[in-house]
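Design request, tokens follow.
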């Protein structure tokens, strides 16, 4: 899917350049905040029109309109066997909507969501990145079946489109018997006032067809905490950013060149050459920019790197599959990599996006990337390579790729003639082998 505008990490700490004023009973000055992903923004706008929210006279009524729409139209259980808006309809609507969004952004009439980088320090797990919010909202808007994070992500993007700063808050819900269950809800701003919402629990409480509002626009945090438990440092961090005048969105009338985050924050001395090469050919995907490259790479991060490598080598834009075959991710790069045959799930229905990538998985994914560009690869090149001492531990699906890449010195052992197939791959190691594969193809 085409991303409307590049989201820069440092922009997450920008002070907003336009003033928004809100009053709970009055008419707000609304500046839409878009995710920047046209398909998600298009489906959310369709829902807002159905809810009639923009025709309401005040903040309370606008928020209630989309809140009630979610309760009345979304479910936590049921088959995902109906698309309430088809991909063809979405694309048709998106052609016009994409142009509208871009014009509004270019003229400063709309903002783009780019949540604070600081949230990573409080175990945000990416819930409030534009990317994850967009595609959770897209999936819920299309199928209207999902769990608490689907409910809260859709509500967050709906409210952002209406001009409200809104977050997904991870934590636990406290049941009547005192037991705890993992849960997600929302915290939003109307002006500088904080409000709490739990659309998923209010949906569950609905009995006679009328939406419950037991957890709607609550202001008493201590009262809220009687039924919700979460990392208070996390929400305090959001509040502190807001109090300092910083906003989790930015406008287009700023100099983007001054906002670019460093391509990486930490790397090993040996890796700097490879990272610089990757940066110079724009191969480092957005999810790895500004990261500590000495840390282990996740499966979804490597999928993004593999897609970037494929697009650089082929000169073509990879297309994602739709809908997602996995129940645990709608990550665009994962779906592109899956469509290219580069990645598979760890089960028939799950991808395990946050799982750490093993060395044998990296070899297989990289080999498939190379093969997808070249069409055919002579894997017998690695047949004469001396086997690793732990050859018997290398999975069959990966073995030929391991020795093929080893023959060209793209992938090496870890010492003592061992490959260590189950060992983890760091981000900088992943970039290195991607760069060497890029060089191999050129």
């Amino acid at each position: 899917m085409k991303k409307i505008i590049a989201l820069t990490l440092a922009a997450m700490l920008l002070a907003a350049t336009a003033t928004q004023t809100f009053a709970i009973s009055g008419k707000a000055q609304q500046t839409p905040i878009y995710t920047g992903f046209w398909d998600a923004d298009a489906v959310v706008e369709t829902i807002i029109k159905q809810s009639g929210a923009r025709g309401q006279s005040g903040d309370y009524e606008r928020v209630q309109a989309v809140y009630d729409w979610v309760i009345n139209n979304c479910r936590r259980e049921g088959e995902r066997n109906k698309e309430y808006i088809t991909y063809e309809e979405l694309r048709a609507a998106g052609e016009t909507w994409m142009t509208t969004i871009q014009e509004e952004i270019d003229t400063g009439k709309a903002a783009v969501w780019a949540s604070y980088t600081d949230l990573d320090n409080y175990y945000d797990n990416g819930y409030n990145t534009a990317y994850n919010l967009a595609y959770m909202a897209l999936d819920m808007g299309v199928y209207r079946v999902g769990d608490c994070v689907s409910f809260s992500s859709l509500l967050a993007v709906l409210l952002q489109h209406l001009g409200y700063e809104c977050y997904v808050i991870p934590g636990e819900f406290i049941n009547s018997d005192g037991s705890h269950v993992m849960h997600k809800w929302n915290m939003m701003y109307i002006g500088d006032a904080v409000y709490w919402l739990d659309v998923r629990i209010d949906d569950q409480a609905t009995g006679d067809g009328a939406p419950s509002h037991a957890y709607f626009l609550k202001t008493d945090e201590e009262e809220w905490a009687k039924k919700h438990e979460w990392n208070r440092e996390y929400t305090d961090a959001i509040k502190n950013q807001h109090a300092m005048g910083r906003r989790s969105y930015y406008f287009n009338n700023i100099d983007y060149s001054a906002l670019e985050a460093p391509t990486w924050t930490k790397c090993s001395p040996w890796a700097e050459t490879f990272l610089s090469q990757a940066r110079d050919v724009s191969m480092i995907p957005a999810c790895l920019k500004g990261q500590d490259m000495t840390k282990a790479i996740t499966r979804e991060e490597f999928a993004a790197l593999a897609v970037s490598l494929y697009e650089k080598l082929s000169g073509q834009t990879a297309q994602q599959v739709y809908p997602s075959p996995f129940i645990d991710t709608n990550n665009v790069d994962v779906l592109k990599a899956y469509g290219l045959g580069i990645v598979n799930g760890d089960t028939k229905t799950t991808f395990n996006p946050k799982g750490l990538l093993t060395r044998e998985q990296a070899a297989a994914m990289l080999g498939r990337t190379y093969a997808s560009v070249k069409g055919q690869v002579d894997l017998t090149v690695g047949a004469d390579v001396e086997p690793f001492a732990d050859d018997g531990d290398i999975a069959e699906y990966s073995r030929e790729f391991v020795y093929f890449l080893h023959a060209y010195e793209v992938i090496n052992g870890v010492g003592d003639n061992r490959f260590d197939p189950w060992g983890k791959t760091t981000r900088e190691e992943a970039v290195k082998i991607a760069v060497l594969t890029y060089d191999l193809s050129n």
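Comment from the thread starter after seeing the answer: thanks! Residues 262-441 form one domain.
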